[in-house]
Amino acid sequence: MQTDLNKWVEYKGKMRILIILGHPDPESFNHAIASSVYDALRNDGHHVTLHDLYAETFDPLLQVQEIPERGAIPAVIQMHCEDLRSADGIIIVHPNWWGQPPAILKGWVDRVFRPGVAYRFEEGDGGEGVPIGLLKAEAVVVLNTSNTPEDREQKVFGDPLDTLWRQCIFDLCGVRTFHRRMFSVIVTSTPHQRLAWLEEAKGLCRRVFQKGPHDKFMDSDKEWPPQYVLDTRTLIRYEEEKDWAAVYALNVAAFVSGAEANLVNALREQARPVVSLVAVENGAVVGHIMFSPVKLSGHSELLIMGLAPMAVAPEHQRKGIGSALVNTGVEQCKKLGYGAVVVLGHPEYYPRFGFSPAACFCISCEYDVPEEVFMAIELQPGFLDEVPGKVKYHAAFGSMTNVL
Questions:
Q1: Boundary residue ending a domain (208, 237, 254)
Q2: pTM, whole model, 2 decimals?
Q3: Which pLDDT tens digit goes with each residue over 75-104?
Q4: Do 281 and 189 fall into the same domain?
Q5: Which residue from 377, 85, 48, 98 is spatially nearest to 209, judged by alpha carbons?
Q6: Neighbours of 104 (CB within 10 A)
């Protein structure tokens, strides 16, 4: 659409993000979440608007004259409607109160998610049909706090907040990519745990809203992280912040130095986007793989990923974990819209996944390595046809050709 093109020209790949906070206590963990996410996204260059509903003394009472689509609405509600209408991404932060958001936030939905702003009905439909979503936002993140353990919330109460926000509100209003995280139990959490949760919230929002003019949003959390069951004990899934320490230790154990572990940390922070997967067995991280964008000289517009590094705990090697990581990672790169993956590795290992010498595509590596160890796979047929050039890895790799 032309409006999308204009948006990316104006913001050069950055986004309008709307954050709505619903908690009365400025010292609450909800406020800490909203503030941390706000700062992180602003630092990434996004245009971020934060509405603290209690601090703004938002009036949640819907007036009868506001109900019709062309009804009279106060200027403050019009402002909120415009913020919602223009948002490329939305973040909602609130506590779980009786399986519901605070009344002030429910009132915000009542008054701002208006017909003509968030949804409409087909002509001739008096309201009995299925509404058509109007929101332009392509992704939403809902961040909740709770004093109910997660398993009880799921098994006893059925997690009503997920149903409310995902299905009853955002799916109905046209936002299909949905992510939600419930942080619990707040009252028994330690300062260290809360700091970790803040990092997790920032990391989730930065990954979801990392879209640029050639990127796609991270898929809805109903589809992401990928979960591939290798056997009854081993699961391949997307790396989470709680895994970072274990991933670092794994890479240190798997290689002769800590260089690879430091590289993973650098890519996680600097490269956008990355596909970072872990293999988990009995709750322990036993394998890890990372993909990060590379550039092809003369064809910088092409979306190509580089596989590196990959590590499997020595005691878990030769069990198919490495193969599962490669296959799952390549599939995730394809889902993100990337057309090819390159790897610098053993010429007798990677061809089993469909890799072939990159020289067959007239592509070379920036590093001085034997031709047969630099390989590529097309994720879209013909993607590498007639695009000769040299692949350049992210600056974080430096001279670490042994990592590749």
A1: 208
A2: 0.54
A3: 999 999 999 999 999 999 999 999 999 999
A4: no
A5: 48
A6: 18
